[in-house]
Specification:
The chain is mainly alpha-helical. The protein has one domain. Helices cover about 80% and strands about 0% of the residues.
Length: about 300
């Protein structure tokens, strides 16, 4: 039962979400605040609650997506289906309700704790967008891909938004430090957006068979595989250009170690993914390409840590 539950909520992905926010907070924002004697809005315990809210939003999105896409997943990935095999659909709806209720209560408490009621809006907005994604946007060309990419970039942005009061004080007191911290967060958000968009389009090609049967209007369904490969390659090349531009635009953040890591752990796998993209012909090859894209995303997260240590 617990194994099925972890598969339903994508426990590994939730761990990555939490890790991303902890890196942004403890590797970038807190050192910058301490350097200038600024107190953060959230202490360790309350930051944990912020991460919990983000994780609950994400978990709820996975649950409702699996409920809505049950029949499509029977075609696309039958071996991974949890709904009605290990967890009844009624139980899944109950879990979805409980996750959302808990998340909203925690978000409401945090908004009053930091005296920023606007924070409470993050939860219903996030839940609502992921619900609309599951029932409508996922089946449309590009719109669903764009939303998920923005959500992944927003995982880091939420931390920045929650600490915007302290960051504003940092910008006034130590503009250079604030500029560096802001640049690093912006860098990661851009990387997360582009790498997620690249992977989402690849996953659409992997899921083509089930999407056609469900009358979805994803990019591969509407434009065909050759055109979709060209679109994915364009975003992959855009990400590659972005990564190559960074050391020239901001050399101060890069050591020899971080440059070697950037080339070997991100740029080289991304070039490999471009080659695999045009050679891919069947579902297994698209799956392998999707997994490589996910590895690139994780490597980018570790790159953030290397840059912050500079």
């Amino acid at each position: 039962m617990f194994t099925a539950l972890f598969r339903l909520i994508r426990f590994q992905n939730l761990a990555i979400v939490a890790l991303t926010q902890y890196l942004i907070y403890y590797a970038l924002l807190l050192p910058a605040f301490r350097q200038s004697g600024i107190s953060p809005s959230l202490d360790g315990a309350h930051f944990f609650l912020l991460v919990m809210v983000t994780v609950l939003i994400t978990a709820g999105g996975y649950i409702i997506n699996d409920i809505v896409d049950f029949r499509i997943d029977l075609v696309n990935r039958p071996e991974q289906v949890v709904i009605n095999r290990h967890i009844r659909v009624q139980t899944a709806y109950w879990l979805y309700f409980c996750v959302n209720l808990l998340g909203f209560l925690v978000a409401l408490y945090l908004s009053f704790y930091v005296n920023q009621v606007v924070l409470a809006n993050i939860f219903p907005i996030g839940v609502g967008l992921l619900f609309v994604y599951s029932i409508y946007l996922k089946r449309q060309a590009f719109l669903g891909n764009l939303l998920i990419s923005l959500f992944c970039a927003g995982v880091a942005g939420i931390v920045w938004f929650a600490e915007r009061k302290g960051f504003g004080a940092l910008a006034r007191q130590s503009p250079d430090v604030a500029g560096q911290a802001g640049w690093l967060i912006t860098w990661y958000m851009a990387f997360a957006f582009l790498s997620t968009l690249f992977r989402e389009i690849i996953k659409d090609m992997e899921d083509l068979q089930g999407d056609v049967g469900a009358n979805c209007r994803t990019i591969p369904v509407r434009l065909g595989i050759p055109a979709t490969k060209a679109i994915a390659a364009a975003f992959g090349l855009g990400l590659l250009a972005f990564l190559c531009f960074l050391p020239f635009r901001h050399p101060v953040f890069f050591t020899r170690l971080s440059l070697i890591y950037l080339i070997l752990a991100i740029i080289m796998p991304l070039l490999t993914a471009q080659v695999m993209l045009f050679r891919a012909q069947d579902k297994k090859q698209y799956y392998n390409l999707s997994q490589l894209s996910k590895l690139i995303m994780l490597s980018g997260l570790a790159m953030l840590l290397l840059l912050s240590l500079k």
